[in-house]
Amino acid sequence: xxxxxxxxxxxxxxxxxxxxxxxxxxxxxxxxxxxxxxxxxxxxxxxxxxxxxxxxxxxxxxxxxxxxxxxxxxxxxxxxxxxxxxxxxxxxxxxxxxxxxxxxxxxxxxxxxxxxxxxxxxxxxxxxxxxxxxxxxxxxxxxxxxxxxxxxxxxxxxxxxxxxxxxxxxxxxxxxxxxxxxxxxxxxxxxxxxxxxxxxxxxxxxxxxxxxxxxxxxxxxxxxxxxxxxxxxxxxxxxxxxxxxxxxxxxxxxxxxxxxxxxxxxxxxxxxxxxxxxxxxxxxxxxxxxxxxxxxxxxxxxxxxxxxxxxxxxxxxxxxxxxxxxxxxxxxxxxx
Amino acid sequence: xxxxxxxxxxxxxxxxxxxxxxxxxxxxxxxxxxxxxxxxxxxxxxxxxxxxxxxxxxxxxxxxxxxxxxxxxxxxxxxxxxxxxxxxxxxxxxxxxxxxxxxxxxxxxxxxxxxxxxxxxxxxxxxxxxxxxxxxxxxxxxxxxxxxxxxxxxxxxxxxxxxxxxxxxxxxxxxxxxxxxxxxxxxxxxxxxxxxxxxxxxxxxxxxxxxxxxxxxxxxxxxxxxxxxxxxxxxxxxxxxxxxxxxxxxxxxxxxxxxxxxxxxxxxxxxxxxxxxxxxxxxxxxxxxxxxxxxxxxxxxxxxxxx
Lengths: 336, 307
Description:
The complex is a heterodimer. By secondary structure, chain A is mainly α.
C-alpha cells in the first residue's frame, strides 16, 4: 500500500496534479481557520526543506534553525515598519542578510563535527533570541513589533487569507524546485558525499568546505524568506516565536519525514504541522503525547516515514550508473 | 546624580568589593552548575550522546524535593536524599526506555529521542504541578555574614558545602571503588570493558542513576537558592550545565567541576560589568568560542579522527 503511494507520489505528473489541486483548493474552503492551518503547514514545509539542505543532504546536525527564521522575520518587520519599505523589496534584503548569518554559522563547520556542531548551532539560536529580547531600542524586547503592514500589489492589499495562501504556495513551489534542482546537481552530490564520509569526500577532491558553507548559506536564505513571510502574515513578531522548541520542531519534521528525502521532508512537515491541530481534542495532554511519540518513532522507525531506500537518487549518480552498465555490456559510451 | 554614580563606580575599594561579591556569587552558582554538568559528562563519556533530558530530570528532582519538604514536612536533608533516590530511578528508567534501544543507531536518533523525553517530562510537570513558579520554603534561618567587603549568606555556605561534599563523594567513588573502576573502564572503551567481564548495561544504568541523583540534589539547591521552582527551569539550567561540561572537557569528571565553577564566575562577572540581560548570551558565547578554539575543553582528552 505504502509502496504504491510512494511510487505514485514520485512521478512528475503527480506533482503537477497536486499543484493544480492546491491552486484551486481555496475555492472550496470557506473556513478562515482551515486556510490558516494550510498556510502554517506551507510555512513549515519551506522551513523543513531549508533545514534539510544542511541536516539532511549535508548531514550537519543543526538545532538552531529558528534563528534564521527569526532574523528574516525581524529584518522584514523592521524594514517595513521603520523604513516603510514594501514587502516585496524586503524579500531580497531579508534573504541576503539571513544568508550572511548562515555563512557565519557555517564557518564553525570548518572545524567542528557532529554533536559539537549541534551545540554551536544551539548556542547561536539562543544568542539570536537573547539579542531580540534585549536590544530594546531596535526590537522593543519582549513586547515585540506589532502592526507590520500587509503586502500590496498595485491597489490590491492583502486583507483576507486567500492572497496569503497563494503567496506561500508560490514560495513553496520555488523552494521545492530549488531543492529538487540541488538534489540532482553535482553540488547536491558533493553534499551527500560530505554527509556519508567527509574525509573520503575530501580525498576524492570534493571541495567539502565550500559545499558545507553553501549549504548553510542557502538553508539560511530560504528560512529567512519564510521568516519575512511570517512577519507580514501574522503582522507581529516577538522573541517567543523563535525559540529552541521551534528549532526542535523543524528538525523533528526533517528527521521524521526522512533525512535527505524531499518528498519525505514535505510529508514530515505536513504530518507534524497538522498534528497539533488534529490532537487539539487532547488539550493539555497534547505535548505530552508529542514527546512520547518522538521517542517511539525514533525506536521503531529511526529512518523516518520515507525510508533510506527512497532517498533522492542523484541525477549525476544515475548517469554514472547508466554509463557503468553500458561499459559492462561493452557498448560505446558516447553513442545515444 | 550621574556624576555621583560615576564616583561610586570608579572608587577603587567599592570596585574591589563588587568584584569579590560577584566572585562569591559566581562560585556558589558554579557549584550547582558543576553538579548538573557531572551528569552530562558521565553519560557522554560512556555513550557519546548528549542527554537532553538531563535538565528536565533536574527539574523533576527539584519538584519532588519541594513536595517532600512542603507536604510531607520532611527536613531538607532527608528530602534531598529521597528525591535523589527517586530521580536516580527515573534516570535509569529513561535510559532503558528511550536510549538503550537506540544504542547502535545513527547519532541523530538518540538525540531526538532525548528531546522527546525532555518535552514529555516538561509537559508532565506542567500537568501535575501547574505552570506557575513556586517558592521553596527554607526550613532554616538565613543569616548573612560580613566578611571584609563581601556579604556571605548561610544559604550560600550550605549550598557550596553540599555541592563540594557530593563532588568529593563522587570523585572518591569513581577513583577508589570497584564499580568506579568499572565505570572508568567502560568510559574508556565499551568493547574492551565488556571483554574484561564488566556488565556494561549495568554500568550504564549506574551512570544514569548517579548523574540523575546529582542533578536532583542540584535541583533542590537551585530551588532553595533562587526560591523558585517551575516546570521549564531545567531548560536554561541544563543548557548552561552542558556548557560547563564542554568548557571543562566533556567526558572528564574533574573537567565538569572546573567548568561549572568557571562558568558561574564568568557569568556573574559578565552580568555585573557588562549587562544583566545578556547574562545567558555570555554563557553561550563563551561556549562557542571554547568549542572553536579548543573543542576538547580545558581538561578533555584529544580525540583523533581515524581514517
